[in-house]
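Changelog-adjacent note: as of this version, every example in the card shows the full chain rather than a window. The one below runs 358 residues end to end.
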Amino acid sequence: MNIEDKMFLVKRKPTEEVLTEKELLKLFESEEHPQHYIGFEISGMLHIGSGLLTAMKIKDFIKAGIRPTIWLADYHSWINKKLGGDLSLIREIARGYFKAGFVSLGLDESQVRYALASEHYDQWYWVKVIEVMKSASIQRMLRCVTIMGRKETEVTESAALLYPAMQAADIFHLKVQLMHAGMDQRKVHVLTREIAEKMKRPKPVAVHTHLLMGLQGPQKMGFESNEKLDTEVSSKMSKSSPKSCIYIHDSEKEISEKIGAAYCPEKQAENNPIIELCEYIIMRDRPLHIERNKKYGGDVDYVKFEELRSAYAKGELHPTDLKNSVAKELSEILKPSREYFNKHSELLDVFKGAKIGK
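Full-length structure tokens:
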């Protein structure tokens, strides 16, 4: 595969930003198989934003010759009080359900390296953590705690300052050349790149992907100063809010009900979660077939997303018809995960009685 095709695969949706494209080009010119990393807190069940969208992007990376690592960040989850701060439960879910979730989405161990973070921490890793903390001010670290999904004012434990330092140290420890995450992790990636220069280490390329909107629609909460990021972060799909998300193993009925109840104002394509599902998932690689009664125009096929978006904004496509088609397509896309967990239901049993959320 030529470099131009590799660049296309990395930059295609749901990618929103590459820091920087020039550095990515140089990376492909010098490395046939760059090392990739994406880290995950272990908390609730995987949904289409955290699971499916990530798997889709990692498949792009694999096609481009990149070698991915899914970093199961157990200590980070512990610091952030996920699953009630139960470290044993965090590790059990990381090794079992979380890894299985990505395998069910088509990322088997022959393609992706899965690593429980704490099993790879040695004395030299903690030296790197200290180096990172010596290279950044307390205020800079405090500004980075929003990557935990919390406001600066919500942080009460000093361990929170360790969280971004450990994330940067993870990247250095793994000798990562390409770090990957949602836009909500941008601050720590920028910090990592700046510290790399100070520490005279190779500066990794950062790939940031779109944050899929929750089904409840936009909810502006003043989370960040930047207006665009403010809306995205406060409204992103959340595993701790079942009505706002679709889990990768939801039944066809559950998917239909959740899509049916989703925010989808007529003629409003902007900040519309159902339109987003079309843009980033349903129509990423295929056209969308809309089934509808002949008296409303009959069936129609939209080959390009822009055509669908325009038709919806003009009122040529009704929300109910769009929702019905999206629910059907999404159910088909998630069929392998649904079947996998139907055969391995014990992996879901671990969540019974578990404390999920912030």
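Structural remarks: The mean pLDDT is 92.
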